[in-house]
Every structure is written in structure tokens, then in C-alpha cells.
Amino acid sequence: MKTILVVGIGAGNPEHITIQAINALNRADVLFIPDKGANKADLADLRREIIARYVTNPASRTLGYAVPQRDAANPDYGAGVDDWHAALAQRFAGLLADVPEDGSCAFLVWGDPGLYDSTIRIIERLRQAHPVAVEIVPGITSVQALTAAHGIALNRIGEPIHITTGRRLTAVTDDTIVMLDGQTAFTQADPDLEIFWGAYLGTPDEIIIAGRLGDVAEQIVATRQAARRQHGWIMDTYLLRKREAREPLHP
């Protein structure tokens, strides 16, 4: 039986990768590199850098593949995603033909495969027609990279954390991490909240902004637009929380 390794590679810094992930990559006969077009070539290049830096198995090889595009114009978001995942599962099934019998292959997944990434779900579709073994290797997420960059703890003492997407952002009652917010939903949130925002986290292009939402929202929007124009893509994450009264620090 062939084995698929789903390997979390961190939020953008090649040094985020774990020893477990390095060992998994070195077990793979084939390492798959997704091609999302010229505008997102940086994402493929980082994967190649990780392979060049850490993979020492002379028998392994890399194989690029084109990523099908999701129909963003479909008014039914759920149906559009389902169709996209079906197309990806078909593409993954085709890739398996390049894997030796009883061999293994690896998908290098940005961040952690278990947090707002669909690779595991797509492979579950594939397994319905193609029996394969699957191993998951966790990775550092943009959430961890965000709090490290800002020098803050994710949770407050005894308090919960809510993680959602920009599409599902509502009134903030708990500390809330927001991912996949292409529509800058934070501009509609309570301006008295505190925001900790970051883009390209862990990379040399990292940008972070923090402050009272009403004071920095326009700055974040403008910074985000400029960065997207410069790079052709953007990945950003932010934490919203109610502001706490802080005692001044005395010498």
C-alpha cells in the first residue's frame, strides 16, 4: 500500500519545520509541490527551499502539479468548495501514479494540516477509490507565529479562545483569532477592540500592526492593499480582544 505523508511546514520560516517533519520528508519517494500560478510562486519556492535545505535522501524527487482554481463566482460557497475539493482529489489521485508500489509521497502543507487547511479532507475523498495509508505531521501555525511576533500570550488566564474566518466573524465576546479574511471583516467590528494583526508571518516580509482597532484599522487596510500589490498575494491573521485596563509600569 502507498503512504501519503501530510507534512506541516510552518507559517513561512524554513526554521519552523520540526525534526519530525524533516524525517517524514526524507522518507518520501516523491515530494509534491503545488503550483498556484506566477502570483504565488513564492509559496512553491519556499517549499523547494525547505526540500533543498533538509532533504538528504538521494532517492527522493520532487514533482510539481497545477492546483485547480475554485470558482469564486459561485454564489453557493459550500457547493463551490465541494466542487473544488472534488477536482483536487482527482488531481491527487493522478499524482499517485508517480509513487512506487509500497512507496510514500509527501504533501508540504503551509502551517498545520489540521487548522484551516483542506488537504486531509481531500485525501479522505481520494481514499474512497484509492486505498492508501495516511500519516499527518503537525506544523507551526500562523496563530503561533502571530502571538510570537507581537510578544503576547494567545489566551488570557482561564479564558477561552475562538478561532474563525472573516466570513463568519460576528460580535466579539471572547478573544478571537480570525483567518482567511479577504474582505477585511475587522473594519465592521467594535472599534474599541484591540487588534494584533500580522501578514507574511515568519518570513523576511513579515508585517505586524497592533493597537485600538478604531485607531489602526485604516492603516491595516492600506498596508494590506500595498503588500498584496507588491507580492501578488497575501496571507494574514489577526487577534481581536477586548482591551484591558493596564496599570502603568513603575521603575
Structure characteristics:
single chain; alpha/beta; Cobalt-precorrin-4 Transmethylase, domain 1; Methyltransferase, Cobalt-precorrin-4 Transmethylase, Domain 2; 2 domains; 5-stranded parallel beta sheet
Overview of the molecule:
By secondary structure, the chain is α/β, with parallel strands linked by helices. The protein is 31% helix and 24% strand. It folds into 2 domains: 135 residues, Tetrapyrrole methylase, N-terminal domain (Cobalt-precorrin-4 Transmethylase, domain 1), CATH 3.40.1010; 101 residues, Methyltransferase, Cobalt-precorrin-4 Transmethylase, Domain 2. The protein has 6 helices and 10 strands. Helix 3 packs across helix 4. The longest helix has 19 residues. The protein is globular, with a radius of gyration of 20 Å. It starts with a strand and ends in a 9-residue tail after the last strand.
